[in-house]
Amino acid sequence: MDALSDPTTGRPLFGDAEFGEATFTGHADFRKVTFSGHAGFDDATFSDRAGFGWATFSGGAEFGGATFTGHAGFGWATFSGRAGFGGATFTGHAGFGNATFSGHTGFDGATFSDRAEFGNATFSDRAGFGRATFSDRVRFGGATFSGHAWFGNATFSGDALFHTATFERAGQLGPMVCQGTFNLTGARFGSPVTLEAAAARLVCRRTRWDSTAALRLRYATVDLSDAVFEYPLSITARTAPFTDLSGTAVPEGQLDGSDPGLRMASLQGADAAHLVLHNVDLSASLLSGTIHLDQLRLEGECPLAASPSGLRRRGLRLVRWTARRTLAEEQHWRAAQGRSGWTAAPASVEVVGPAQLAPVYRHLRKSFEDHRNEPDAADFYYGEMEMRRHDRNRPRAERALLAVYWALSGYGLRASRAVGWLLGAMAVTVLVMMLWGLPADDPNPATTGRLTGQDISLTTDKPDPVNPTGSLLSRLSWDRGEKSLRIVVNSVVFRSSGQDLTTIGTYTEMVSRLAEPVLLGLAALAIRGRVKR
Known about the structure:
Number of helices: 7
Oligomer: single chain
Radius of gyration: 39 Å
Number of strands: 48
Helix content: 10-25%
């Protein structure tokens, strides 16, 4: 078919062009060609390179079922009408970079065996990539989707790069499967959207949502660093596989068989005021630098990293870490301090110290308390106090006071520790009373009188308690033990025993009446913190 020339531009000009089922064995060069009418290439075969760069399709362009064995170049092409590539096969590289699609665009069921390039492409109407298969990396970086973008049942075997893409009226993306990284860095969503994807990794750094959004994900590790969402954004772990419109489960390829759970990699720099996480693993998430972390909502099971279990060697001493939920950043900091059992930071992650972590724990604690979940907020209070105790920028007196508070009761959260100290203090007090506090014998009052005429004058004196004598072992009797225990029990509840004591015993009772009720109160406080509604 001979082409005319456009009198204005001098470019080749076709009216209606029908190449249906045609076979192009050599290089098919349609670069800068203008198709003023309908261009039909349905079921055509391009055995070599197919060049449509800078071509203009004023009418409909149909490439349904076409086969591109070599490089298919549509860069900077303009499709003013419908562009149909449904069921097309691209064996080589497919380049649609900077192409303009003004009408309905359909790549439904298309197969891309090599890299696919849609960078900076413009889709003004509906863009359909349903059931499309991308065997290698695909790039939509900088692309603009002004109409509805449909990727239902699309499969990406490599990375899917949508960085800086714009979705003005996406509505719904997916369900789709990406076995590599689904990259939405710098992308913008201008309308409410639901994203459903089974992906190995979802990167949303500096992604902007201008309306409500719901992310329903499987397998993915999500990075929301510096993301912007001014309206509610929910991220939910999808437990069951996605299904298509007929109810059939979407094949998940190499992802099938691995953990389908959802993990958060980072929220640094994001504003969490409108963020809701449901069943998202936060054990490796970086939370320092998150804005409005106290307004973050965690629903379902959102575990954090656990402290090391069992006994650990620390120099010549054996230590056991208190079981609690911790931030990933605390894990990194303690590992950097040489503590065994804690997770070291990856090479690309900066280790932050206690001064930066204390506010993070405080904000998480407030978030849980605001949602009436004070028992689970206790771990974050413990973490906050730990960071304050280890913060060398704080006054030594404050750190010393926190150290005592930690040693006695685990910041009022470890009842067993406070009870242990209480029982130990009571045992020591009983022993001191038996050995030195109780007198040798209970002093008996002595009354003396004088008769003067008809007047009688009586004076009653009570002898001072006599310190016990004899060996220390002889003082450890059942009778002295029972008296000492009664004195100690009374001291715990601020009561005087009424027992005559030696000077040592008197001062010992005074100290025990001050210290032991405090320990009992700390134990009660810890129990209350775990059962408070």
